[in-house]
Design brief:
Elements lengths: L1 H25 L3 E8 L3 E8 L5 E6 L4 E6 L11 E2 L5 E8 L4 E7 L6 E5 L7 E8 L18 E7 L17 H17 L3 E5 L9 H10 L4 E8 L10 E5 L1 H13 L4 H5 L2 H4 L3 H37 L8 E3 L11 E8 L3 H8 L1 H21 L6 H6 L2 E3 L6 H7 L4 H7 L12 E3 L2
Parallel strand pairs: 1-5, 10-11, 10-12, 12-15, 13-14
Antiparallel strand pairs: 1-2, 2-9, 3-4, 4-7, 6-7, 8-9, 13-15, 16-17
Helix pairs in contact: 2-9, 4-7, 7-9
The structure holds zinc ion.
EC number: 3.5.1.28
InterPro entries: AMIN_dom, LysM, LysM_dom_sf, MurNAc-LAA_cat, N-acetylmuramoyl_amidase_3
Organism: Rheinheimera maricola
């Protein structure tokens, strides 16, 4: 008897539950449509009131992507679309009061990826359509090795597009702090002979964290600098910090990449051409990668220290030593990578400071000063910086300052200045800089 009643009750409860969920689903709604173009991909985001029930398929002649949404209230009107992309001619919709059909008229056939995303502030439920560009803007050809090449700094402005990063107490987005700092750093680098920047993202769009290191690798970057702003659950923490790859993460990544034979050549560059014996390949790849990882980590740690020295002059430091982390963007074992947290966006004073253009400029300048100094001190052997550094002269017996000035076609005064000489006397074995 008890049992029977229990089942009866349970069935009623289930029925009620089912009715409630139908009612909930029927109240879904498309609240916004945003188009985010990027060089690789166009992302269309439908902001939804609840988790979407969706199906999609492609049609050709003309190329279209059709998305059917179920249980949509007000299904006949699609909100106004913000943003545009060369891949999309138009976005239109039709509805019968319960379901909605959205059609994307495309300029060419593309392999669309349609998926839903759970709420992440400031966004709620979303239906996302990724339309890869069929002919992605080709990455610039890798820099050809010349006698004196530029040092390439990949600059990664954290977050972007769909991903605002952390949000400050006044509602400011991290992605809107990282991009202007990255742009200014790029400008300073590009004005410096012997250095060249490449921006991992050039505008407000989303790039997956794995793709960020791939872009840097495609340009054979000497260093990857990822720019972020920190956040915490309480408003007190403040200050900048610099992160490098943790040894444990690096070791795991090397292992994972070695499992994928097809990635060896990507990681090893020219070396892979020499390694033709597949039995030895893994062993050799391991050795070469260990060496390059070791170099990457040492370089990253040195650069991180130099960046902290400079940042400390213009900002409060949260941590005075480089921190080791397993952050995604730091996982490239073959490219020295650092992640700079320029301050805490969750701290009201720092949020205000980070928003100010003059502070952003100071941060960019201090990053540049540190990077430039690092590469002046330890230039890659084939770089212009290395060539310039090599303009030194070791004094032999019988040489005088005036003789050297004549030989290098410079003035005695310039030689004296650059070498900070108090007089014209020089000694055998002394190393002089040549202006
Ligand atoms: Zn961040």
């Amino acid at each position: 008897m008890m049992k029977n009643n229990y089942y009866k009750f349970k069935n009623v409860a289930l029925l009620l539950l089912a009715l409630t969920s139908v009612a909930t689903l029927a109240s879904n709604q498309v609240q916004g449509v945003r188009v985010w173009p990027s060089p690789d991909n166009t992302r269309v985001v439908f902001d939804m009131a609840a988790a979407p029930e969706h199906k999609s398929f492609s049609l050709d002649k003309p190329d279209r992507l059709v998305i059917d949404l179920q249980n949509i209230k007000g299904s006949s009107n699609l909100p106004a679309v913000t943003g545009e992309s060369s891949v999309i001619k138009a976005i239109r919709s039709s509805g019968d009061g319960n379901s909605m059909r959205i059609v994307l008229d495309l300029t060419k056939a593309t392999n669309a990826n349609v998926f839903s995303l759970p709420p992440t502030p400031p966004y709620g439920h979303r239906l996302v359509v990724d339309l890869p560009n069929n002919q992605p803007e080709p990455n610039l050809p890798p820099p050809t090795i010349r006698a004196a090449r530029d040092i390439v700094i990949a600059i990664d402005a954290g977050h972007g597009g769909e991903d605002p990063g952390s949000i400050g107490p006044s509602g400011f987005y991290e992605k809107n702090i990282t991009l202007p700092i990255a742009r200014q750093l790029a400008q300073l680098i590009d004005r410096q002979p012997g250095m060249k920047s490449m921006m991992v993202r050039t505008n407000d769009y989303y790039i997956h964290v794995n793709r960020r290191t791939e872009i840097a690798r495609g340009q054979q970057a000497d260093l990857l600098v990822s720019i972020h702003a920190d956040a915490f659950t309480s408003p007190q923490p403040r200050g900048a910090s610099v992160w490098v790859l943790s040894l444990r993460r690096a070791t795991t990544e090397v292992g994972r990449m070695l499992e994928q034979t097809e990635r060896h050549s990507e990681l090893l560059g020219g070396v892979a051409e020499i390694i033709k014996d597949s039995a030895n390949e893994r062993y050799l790849a391991q050795t070469v990668l260990d060496l390059s990882m070791n170099h990457s980590m040492v370089t990253a740690y040195q650069v991180a220290g130099e960046v902290l020295d400079e940042l400390g002059k213009v900002a409060h430091l949260h941590k005075k030593e480089p921190q080791a982390a397993s952050l995604g963007v730091l996982k490239a074992p073959d490219i020295p990578s650092i992640l700079v947290e320029v301050g805490f966006i969750s701290n009201p004073q720092e949020e205000k400071q980070l928003k100010s253009a003059s502070h952003q400029t100071q941060l960019a300048k201090s990053l540049f000063t540190a990077l430039k100094r690092h590469f002046e001190t330890s230039p890659p052997a084939d770089s212009l910086f290395a060539q310039q550094r090599a303009r030194e002269h070791r004094v032999s017996a019988g040489e005088s300052l005036s003789l050297l000035a004549q030989r290098y076609n410079v003035s005695v005064a310039d030689l004296r200045d650059i070498n900070q000489l108090a007089s014209d006397s020089i000694r055998v074995g002394q190393t002089l800089r040549i202006p």
